Structure formats: C-alpha cells, structure tokens
C-alpha cells in the first residue's frame, strides 16, 4: 500500500512537517538525505529560534526536532531520495539503496546549500568567524569590523544588515560594479560605514585559535595584495536549492527554487507540497522553514481528506 505521506529532507521544515503529519494520524515516513539536519548542522549557536532562551547548538536543535517527530511515531529513515515520478495519482520515489517508495502525498523539504569560495581557510574558520548568514550570526560581531563577499542582492542585503551592528563593513566585490538591483546598490552606496572594495578577491582568511583576525585580498586588475583586519567573514554569493531531482516534474524559478501557489505549499502537481528553503529564496531562516513545514503538513492532510484517503 502507498504511504499516506513521505517527507523528503530533515531540516526544520521536514521535522516540523513530520510532527504535524504524525499528530494527524498520517503515519509519515521521513527520508533524511545525506545531510540530516541540513544547514543547521554546521551552525554552532542558534539564538534566534523561539523557545531556547539560552540559545542552542544547531545539531542539538535538530536532534530535539527529530526526537519530537519520532515521539509521534514518524518513521525516520537514513537514506537519500534520488529520483521521483510524479506522473500518476500515486507518486513514486527511488531511494539511493534501491527501494521504490509509493506515496499519496509528498512533502519536499530538501533545503538549499550556501555557495562557498572553496578555500581551505574558509572551512578551517567555519563557525569561528566565517558564516553565510548575517541575520543568523551578525549579532556575534556587534562593534567589530567584518567583511562580506559578493556583489549581488544577497551581498548587498547582508552588508546593509551588518552595517547596523558593526562600525565598518568591508564589501569585497570581484568586479568594478555591483550586480545587485538598483535600489539595493543605492542603499549600499549611501551607507557610510560600508566600504566597497572594487575588483577585489579573497586570497586567504587568516586567524588563530580564537577565530578570524583578518582577510588577505588582492586586486584582480593590479594584483596588489592587502590585508584587512576583520573578525567576521560573510560569504554572500548565493544559495543553490537542492531541487535538481524535481526538474522534470515541478515548476521552478530560474535559479531552481520550487514555485508554490500563493499562501500555500501546493506545487503544480497534485499531492506534492514544498516547504523550507527549497521554495524560499527570501527569508531562509529556521523559524520560517519550520512554519512552512507546518503549512505543508496541513495542506497534505486536507488533500488526503478530500481524496478520502484518510
């Protein structure tokens, strides 16, 4: 028999969907994927998720969510969904281990992955000054100088946010112009404590046991090197939604984010719902992901009820 509900992904969206689906007697099955817990597994202190007055470690928060989902008898499977077929009323999914899974409803919570520069020092200082989310981590750098890498809207938004917390924000732009929208460009240029470094690329992030201390950069026109003292290094060159396996079936925008009907989590395929960062290129926060996970479970429950399945 097909499962009532299969959830793909195990971040805040996936686990919240599982909690709501399980409490609605939908007997959900959740496939964790290769990175159980998603981006929060590489986050140390989470201080902006309600209910944790002292903050919480990202991995601990994910473990708490998993336990809560399992408490209501969600079946959590450590496997990867590698292929789907949404052509019929019963959806088919293939796991990496070779199993074929059938489901009346599918909730996609596969998230998105931050793009990185690919430097060894970037990984060395991850969570010790290196971050891909100013809203998540900017608070830790109040009163300190920071650098932001990127020239698009994401970088402009990150720099603008950090400028409210930090005395100087060094915006490292690879070209001699910003790719950001005109309004974002104007906002950045008018912000006095954002210092734009044109034609600038990162050579290396420097630091010690306490974390990032500076960034070595070079001008790609003159090859001149310099070192900028900073405590925080924010990479804002975009995110890649983990949605490639749905290319053939679901509507997406031009960057791969799943498109849903306004005010819902409904995709263009009946019985398939999208939640979390896989369909959110604006907020990308744990709390908003959890909220859409709740929405997806409720939408799936209503769908299954209307079809007389539950």
Q: In words, what does this structure look like?
A:
The protein is of the alpha/beta class and 310 residues long. It is 25% helix and 27% strand. It has helices at 12-23, 58-71, 120-124, 134-137, 153-163, 182-190, 286-306, and strands at 3-8, 29-31, 45-46, 56-57, 75-77, 81-85, 91-95, 100-108, 112-114, 130-131, 146-149, 169-172, 194-197, 200-208, 211-219, 225-229, 232-235, 239-241, 272-274. The chain is elongated. The relative contact order is 0.18. The mean pLDDT is 95.
Which descriptors apply to this entry?
single chain; 310 residues; alpha/beta; 7-stranded mixed sheet; 5-stranded parallel sheet
Topology diagram in text:
Blueprint: E1 3-8, H1 12-23, E2 29-31, E3 45-46, E4 56-57, H2 58-71, E5 75-77, E6 81-85, E7 91-95, E8 100-108, E9 112-114, H3 120-124, E10 130-131, H4 134-137, E11 146-149, H5 153-163, E12 169-172, H6 182-190, E13 194-197, E14 200-208, E15 211-219, E16 225-229, E17 232-235, E18 239-241, E19 272-274, H7 286-306
Parallel strand pairs: 1-2, 1-8, 2-5, 8-19, 10-17, 11-12, 11-17, 12-13
Antiparallel strand pairs: 3-4, 6-7, 7-8, 9-18, 14-15, 15-16
Helix pairs in contact: 1-2, 1-7, 5-6
């Amino acid at each position: 028999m097909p499962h009532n509900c299969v959830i793909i992904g195990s971040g805040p969206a996936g686990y919240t969907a599982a909690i709501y689906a399980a409490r609605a007697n939908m007997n959900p099955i959740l496939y964790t994927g290769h990175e159980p817990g998603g981006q929060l597994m590489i986050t140390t202190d989470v201080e902006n998720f309600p209910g944790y007055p002292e903050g919480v470690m990202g991995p601990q928060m994910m473990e708490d969510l998993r336990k809560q989902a399992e408490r209501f008898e969600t079946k959590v499977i450590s496997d990867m969904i590698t292929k789907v077929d949404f052509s019929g009323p019963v959806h088919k999914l293939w796991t990496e281990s070779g199993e074929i899974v059938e489901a009346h409803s599918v909730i996609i919570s596969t998230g998105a992955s931050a793009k990185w520069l690919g430097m060894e020092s970037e990984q060395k200082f991850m969570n010790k000054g290196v971050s891909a989310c100013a809203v998540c981590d900017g608070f830790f750098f109040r009163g300190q100088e920071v650098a932001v890498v990127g020239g698009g809207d994401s970088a402009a938004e990150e720099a603008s946010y950090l400028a409210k917390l930090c005395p100087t924000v060094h915006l490292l732009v690879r070209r001699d112009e910003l790719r950001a929208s005109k309004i974002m460009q104007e906002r950045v240029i008018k912000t006095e404590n954002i210092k734009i470094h044109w034609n600038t690329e990162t050579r290396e992030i420097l630091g010690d046991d306490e974390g990032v201390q500076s960034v070595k950069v070079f001008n790609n026109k003159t090859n001149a090197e310099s070192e900028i003292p900073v405590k925080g290094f924010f990479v804002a060159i975009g995110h890649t939604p983990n949605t490639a396996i749905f290319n053939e079936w679901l509507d997406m925008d031009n960057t791969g984010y799943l498109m849903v009907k306004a005010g819902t989590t409904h995709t263009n395929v009946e019985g398939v719902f999208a939640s979390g960062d896989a369909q959110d290129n604006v907020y990308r926060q744990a709390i908003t992901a959890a909220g859409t996970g709740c929405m997806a479970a409720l939408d799936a429950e209503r769908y299954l009820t209307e079809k007389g399945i539950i």
